[in-house]
Structure formats: structure tokens, C-alpha cells
Amino acid sequence: MLQQRSAPDSLIHIAHQQIKDILTNVTGVEYVMVCSSDGFELTSAYKKNVENTGKLAAVSSSILAMVQAFLSEINLYGCQSITLDAKNGKAFLSAVPNKNYPMLIVALTSQEVLLGQLLFSLKRCSEKILEADTHYSS
């Protein structure tokens, strides 16, 4: 089946609800975006405005693809997330391995974010998106 750049509006709506939940319930999260695996923004929620979100979506999908290629070279498979830690904040890239509409969740946070809470929330968000797609596909 051909993978499409965008997902159905109903699935994007579910994704938006899930990322808003992360933004609201995880202290330190400033920006969350869902983009297609080929680097196009599908939806976002934020407390802090981020410029050039189109470029952020494109670069994020490229980073995930490069890390997945690197991991396969060292015989590690199924890269689900990447954590980047900087002096002034953190960035998280999390794959949503949807068969029909593969996506990526990008979260930008302050340095003080509770890592475990965020990782759990990102995983739950991904699961809810996959679950919603299963209902729409069947």
C-alpha cells in the first residue's frame, strides 16, 4: 500500500487531542508537533511559539531516518525514540509506527521536564493514535 503524506482529518484530530494532553499534563513541555514520516507538519500544540515549524518537521523526520539507518548498521532495530539534551532544553522525537500513515511526534521542553513522565506520555500518545487508526481502518 502506498504511504500517503497526510493522514485523514479524523486521525489528525485524535493526534491533536493527544498532544494537547501532553502539553497540559507534563510540566516543562513547551511545544509538541505531529508530522508525517516524510517531514510535513500535521498538527501542533504549544505554550512557546516555535518559528519555521515546516523546517522543524522536515529536519526531525530526517534525523529519525538517519538514526534508524545508523542503528540498523549496528544490528539494533525498531528505533522508537530519540532524546536530545542541550543546555537550554530538551528535544524528543518519537516514532508512531502506523502502517498506513507513519508519523513522528516532536516535543520540545525545558531542562526541568520529568523525563519518565514525558516518555510515558509520548508512548501513550503513540498508542492512542495507532488505536484510533485501527478503528478507522476496520
Please, could you describe this protein's structure?
The chain is α+β, with helices and mostly antiparallel strands and 138 residues long. The chain is 44% helix and 25% strand. The protein has three helices and five strands. Strands 2-1-5-4-3 form a five-stranded antiparallel beta sheet, sandwiched between helices. Helix 1 packs antiparallel against helix 3 (115-137). The protein is globular. The two termini are 15 Å apart. The model has no long low-confidence stretch (mean pLDDT 89).
Principal-axis shape: globular
Strand portion:
25-35%
Mean pLDDT: 89
Task: Give the strand order of the largest sheet, numbering strands 1, 2, ... along the chain.
Answer: 2-1-5-4-3
The ordered string of helix (H) and strand (E) elements is HEEHEEEH
Number of helices: 3
Instruction: Note poorly predicted spans.
Output: none
Percent of residues in helices comes to: 40-55%
Radius of gyration: 14 Å
Please, what is the oligomeric state?
Answer: single chain
Q: SS-based structural class?
A: alpha+beta
Helices and strands, with pairings:
Layout (H helix, E strand, L loop, with lengths): L8 H17 L3 E8 L4 E6 L6 H21 L7 E6 L2 E8 L6 E7 L5 H23 L1
Antiparallel strand pairs: 1-2, 1-5, 3-4, 4-5
Helix pairs in contact: 1-3
Task: Provide a short characterization of the protein structure.
The chain is α+β, with helices and mostly antiparallel strands. 44% of the residues lie in helices and 25% in strands.
Key words describing this protein structure:
138 residues, alpha+beta, 5-stranded antiparallel beta sheet, 5 strands, globular
